Amino acid sequence: MIDARVTPGRFIAVVGPSGVGKDSVMEALVAARPELVRVRRVITRASGAGGEDFDGISPALFAARAAGGDFALHWQAHGLFYGIPREVHQVLARGQDALANLSRGMLGQAHRAFPTLQVLHITARPEVLADRLAARGREGRGDIARRLARAAPPFPDGLRVSEIDNSGRLDRAVAAALAALYPAKV
Predict the structure, then answer these.
(1) Which of 10, 37, 84, 147 could form a disulfide with 116 if both were Cys (CB 3.0 to 4.6 A apart)?
(2) Pairing of strands 80-85, 54-56
């Protein structure tokens, strides 16, 4: 049962291009604000694949769980399926903020599913992104150049979006994100 006296928490969607440091920013935000709940996504890739903490499952199990209503949101990108477990609604109902790495293309759906949606758009200068992507060793320079040349789609109307530059030191990006999410009351 939802307590009407509790202000619902915010669903904080973290978006940005590959290599921008979304996971690093999210990890540091949770370290700075332990009450902030980081949503563990369900992804159709092997659990040992590295990167973020996630629950890896098969495409067949993902499809069954999606059909059973196990996800508050789910989508396909880059040949994989991603899901936000529906239990996030319980976190928000308790008044806690929940933080999740989300596909920019899902923001319209996320806004409908989570009226308290706030977006952290993590950015970095193109040369910084190129260097980070090259350091991963997953793509060649040509692929990286094509990735960086793609224009990002516009944000849906009506969203609260805070842009956070993560071109430099992580602590500066985290401080900017914390200030955007938890402004000091004067």
Answers:
(1) 10
(2) unpaired
| Per-residue confidence (pLDDT) for residue 71, from 0 to 100 | 97
For the domain spanning 11-39+92-181, the CATH number is 3.40.50.300
Q: Is the pLDDT of residue 47 over 90?
A: no
- Amino acid in the structure at residue 92: L
| pLDDT exceeds 70 at position 145 | yes
Phi, psi for 37 (deg, rounded to 5): -95, 120
List pLDDT tens digits, range 84-104. 999 999 999 999 999 999 999
Identify which of 47, 44, 107, 54 has the alpha carbon closest to the alpha carbon of residue 76: 44
Domain boundaries, the chain: 11-39+92-181
Q: Which residues make up each annotated binding site for ATP?
A: 16-23
Encoded tokens for 183: 């402004």
Enter the tokens of residue 36: 């902030």
pTM attached to this predicted model: 0.89
Residues placed in the known binding site:
16-23
What is the DSSP track for 9-59? PPEEEEE--TTS-HHHHHHHHHHH-TTSEEP-EEESS-GGG-SS-EEE--H
> Is 20 within 8 Å of 129 (Cβ atoms)?
yes
